[in-house]
Amino acid sequence: MNDLTTANMLQTRTAEPRADRSLDMIENHTFDEINVGDTACLTRTLQAEDIQLFATMSGDVNPAHLDLEYAKSTQFRGIIAHGMWGGALISTVLGTQYPGPGTIYLAQNLSFLRPVHVGDTLEVRVRVTAKDADNHHVTLDCRCTNQHGKEVITGSALVLAPAEKVRRPRLAPMHVRLTDRTLRYRQLLALVAGLPAITVAVVHPCSTDALRGAMAAAEMGLIVPILVGPEATIRAVAAEADIAVDDCRIIDVPDSRAAAALAVAMARNGEVQALMKGSLHTDELMAEVVKTAGGLRTERRISHVFVLDVPAYPKPLLISDGAINVEPDLNAKHDIICNAIDLAHALGIATPKVAILAAIETVNPSMRSTVDAAALCKMADRGQIEGAVLDGPLAFDNAISAIAAKDKGIDSAVAGDADILIAPNLEAGNMMTKQLQYLADAQAAGLVLGARVPVILTSRADSTGARIASCALALLVVKARTAERLAA
Description:
CATH topology of the domain at 4-169: Thiol Ester Dehydrase, Chain A
Low-confidence stretches: 1-22
CATH superfamily of the domain at 4-169: Hotdog Thioesterase
Mean pLDDT: 90
Helix content: 25-40%
Number of helices: 16
Strand content: 15-25%
CATH architecture of the domain at 4-169: Roll
Shape: elongated
Number of strands: 19
Structural class: alpha/beta
CATH class of the domain at 4-169: Alpha Beta
Distance between the termini: 71 Å
């Protein structure tokens, strides 16, 4: 049996406890020690997490176990456990209690008599009914009974009992964190549900990923794409990847540079409400956006904001700037913060908490990041930055961990609960974001802000979901700007 770690998550008891048995040890019963009539049992209350874990482990995503709306329409009137969840508990008793380690499962027959709902408590009991001395086989009656005394599962198991004594330390179970990778994505899409699509110039969409992302966002009603690039190439990519573009307006230009220039001109003329990077280099597009003459500059410095869903963090996390400003000075950081605050407001965060990051929490004149952070906080105190609560300098751990902040004696409304992290430079912001993506399984979307229109700046490595989420962010920003103009 190999169910040792499973048993550590259960509260167990045996019918014949050993006086010398430690709770930190697992000890078996050899064939010679087993008697007909011996019993062992455990109790377990079904939690919602148990169903999710079982589905993840087995791949059984039957909606009767996971989809509440569907489950309510079944004869069981709600979510029920997988039948073999109870079977696994029987295996736990056999493998960790009776006979215990060294037992080999040979056969099992089970009858599933009643459903098990979240909150039900099962008593899982096995009883020895026969021994075969010729081959060390042991037959056990197996029964799972719920808190109402009703039998849920009945059956029998045939095992090969251990011949040698085993007494081993009880291993600690692996910590498993369950996360819904689509929850915040669904929440974001809910924010844009019913909003009119925005017109977007998709710049040089000459790769499968770039074209598919734009068209997927169009299918969801987020954008009306205008494809700007070499038409023959775009149609060839679409045909090869089976992407429908026949209903799209395509503006034929010879290359990526011409596509970027035309798309920016369209934005200046009000023909489109946002730009979306296709398969050209970021520098090519942004060079046109930031041009002094003919670009999309405003009085605000242009910057990029990542919006991340980090499974270990309880809310969306915005990081800026990790893509545009290499070594921002104080004035640039002022605008970077204001752009991030605007995006947070568009996401419905009324008063975002902004942590200005450095390596330490105190002001050190030899570390510009700490001096800038202190100055930015004072600017907020004087009304030069509005709509948010700022604090800094803060190290990364103190910005996102209340425990770390408390350990260091930091009394702050921002520390441990930040909505926005402001990096000291592009390298820090970029590495921080990618570390969260690749080491913490974060999902990322992002926008360039501070220009006349939002720029959906996606990476070649971005998934279709990330591109759709970035389009949704652009839609929210356009909605917020429209509301501001109407209110002015």
